[in-house]
Write a structure and sequence with these properties.
mainly alpha; 22 helices; about 80% helix; about 0% strand
Length: about 450
Amino acid sequence: AQAAEISAQAMNIFGLSGSDVGRIADVLAAGANKSAADVGQLGDALRQGGLVAEQTGLTLEETVGTLAAFADNALVGSDAGTSLKTMLQRLTPTSKESAEMMAQLGFSAYDTQGDFIGMEALAGELQSSLGGLTVEQRNTALATMFGSDAVRGANVLYEEGAPGIARYIAAVNDQGAASRMAAELTNNLAGDVERLGGSLETALIRGGSGANTVLREMVQFATGAVNAIGNMDSTVLGAGVALAGFGGSALLVLGTIGTLVPKVQEARTSLANLGQAGEIANTALGKVGRAVGAATILVTIASAADLADQALDNFLNQPADVTKLTGDLASVGSAADLSADLVRNLGFSLPELTSRIADVQTRGFLEDFVKGTSEADAKIRDLDTGLSSLVQGGAVDAAQDQFKLLEEGLRAAGLSTEQIAAAFPEYTRALGEAEAAAKVKAAAAGDLAGAQE
């Protein structure tokens, strides 16, 4: 709320539009990051001095850059804004003494057309006009020209000179400063909690009252767990906080899985109703389901957030297509590399299959296979099973990539296309079934879409 208020006020003061709010945020964030002021203090200063600054002819960057220079010299907040306002007003002499002093020094803040020369040039003009005076004479001159309040700001400009003020103005003119600063400031536990809150809000918006009930129960349970941790003896807490955090994460994953169980069953029923294509997808879904028990803790430790993002994108952004759904399920399982159970269910893991294909790419093995040795035949049958399992699991592209490596070597050894196909009957059959599954039109696709959602 405070950031929105400061941005709106800066927008109105300098006559900017809503599309400039990003620029305002960048300038204020850079000013806060590169001076002793914070954004709230810069906002207070703008409220006091911003209107006069804009009327004098200063840009947003010149104003905030000057306030940043003030802040580094212990002049901050509304006090800095008041000093800036009074100093700018005193650039036009308000007394006979002030006018005489400016004339005597040859000092002017306006050009021959009566336009303000800018803060950088003003600082340079102060240095050139006052540089030859003693400290006493300079203090007298500044006090006469600017008065007791604005003399502080004028002193800062004199000390910094044109190069110093130019550096401050350039420092706040930093596109992207706000987003970089926000990323840095939230790269900690508080930021993680803030992002978790945002994710929960998004989930509630998408899920409606049903998600609200489930998530409230989870949050209330987590609150109780945190309170229990807080009441622990400090010695125990120091040693056990990491385990407590792991336990909370595991409970969160298990709670989510518990809410998904009925939906998984609905999805499997709908998939089964789609015939052969549905059976392939249903099988893959069951394989992932059997791996859940062994995978839960590993997912919690390793990559729960990445997998959740991947699954959410795949399921929300793609149409209800059986083949695509099958591929998504297989890719989630493959990405996690969850457990030996999943490897057994799918036949080979992809890295293992790749390794076995590399082993048989030698000229000696290919020659043995062309000759028809039993050992070479057995290895090819194993590879045929592995490639078939990948296709049935939905990873058709991965299977085809691996098969191309084999095909190149077998062709080089003299085998025809027909001979190669005959050597991989399971893989060839699985590809045919996958192609048929891809062409399933969907009388039942509406049911699948609902269950998938």
